[in-house]
Amino acid sequence: MTGPVLLAHDISELDAVRAKLGADGRTVALVPTMGALHEGHRALIRRARELAGAAVVSIFVNPRQFGPGEDFERYPRTLETDLEICREEGVAAAFVPSVDVMYPDEQVVTVSSGPMGAVFEGAHRPGHFDGVLTVVLKLLNLVRPDVALFGQKDGQQLAMIRRMARDLNVPVRIEGVPTVREPGGLALSSRNRYLSAEERETALALSRALRAGESAAAEGPAAVLAAGRAVLDEAARARPPLAVDYLGLVDPDSFAEVTPEHRGRALLVVAARVGATRLIDNVPLTLER
Ligand code: AMP
Fold first, then answer.
1. 34 Cα nearest atom in ligand 1
2. Model-level pTM greater than 0.85?
3. Whose CA is nearest to atom 19 of ligand 1?
4. What is the C-alpha separation between 148 and 135, in angstroms, rounded?
5. Which CATH number does 6-177 carry?
6. CA-nearest residue, atom 18 of ligand 1
């Protein structure tokens, strides 16, 4: 069922949209985004439409998940193109609130991401996951979807949202969607548009390191990390250079680092900066017995 995208700017408009979707007897899938939509977001929307009668996309650059000195001000805002993409993808409704709509008062009560939100991304971006979980819980409460979709690209975010839904008994199904990449391997990201041609070349080392780690999976955790590290070390000598924040091999659910003896599922995660742009990526792998 496609038609015009219903637009909701504030909570009363959203309530009207939600009531209409409910009255039509449609189940609802929510795809939360910060806009600047690309093929990765399109994959989430397509999966949303497979899973529910109506896909709702939220577009909100959430100030609470950006730290001081991060790119909140310059984050790309491309609402007209985003709505065009929503129309092309058969999105039923878009929720496009302002900061004042989402945070009309001081946000006194917030979600704490706990120790799991303080490692890897959380260690480099203090407060980031508290901001993410708080806005996601607000969006879930506002839209009341049957299912909400998130990209595997932000692996720790997906794991934290699953954990929040479990720990706080949030009545929603959380669905992860595999990472969409450019042909060269670079994971699609709204931040890729900050990269110059030379920086983009250097940035390819992230996905190259993950593939190198994946190829070493049969030899165990130490070999996976060594193979990934070798690629990143080389990229650190490139022009422009790659500055690595972390490379880790973790349990995909808890984000605890795996032991050297670990076998079974794991997630190889990486974060690095190229010039002023910070990029993250990960790949799931299985360490064979
Ligand atoms: P963002 O707009 O960057 O906050 O992302 C919105 C959603 O899209 C998040 O759940 C992301 O994990 C997901 N996403 C972003 N990039 C990709 C990608 N390359 N492949 C799959 N999902 C993605």
1. 2
2. yes
3. 188
4. 13
5. 3.40.50.620
6. 40
CA distances from residue 220 to 12, 97, 223 in whole angstroms, order as listed: 54, 47, 6
For residue 46, give the amino acid letter: R
Q: pLDDT tens-digit profile of 217-257?
A: 999 999 999 999 999 999 999 999 999 999 999 999 999 99
The answer to whether 266 and 255 have CB atoms below 8 angstroms apart is no
Fold adopted by 190-283: Pantoate--beta-alanine Ligase; Chain: A,domain 2 (3.30.1300)
Please name the residues in contact with 100: beta carbons below 8 A apart, sequence gap of 6 or more: none
Query: Which ranges in 70-184 belong to alpha helices (H)?
Result: 79-88, 99-102, 121-124, 128-143, 155-167
The full DSSP string for 193-212 is GG--HHHHHHHHHHHHHHHH
Where exactly are the structural domains of the chain?
6-177, 190-283
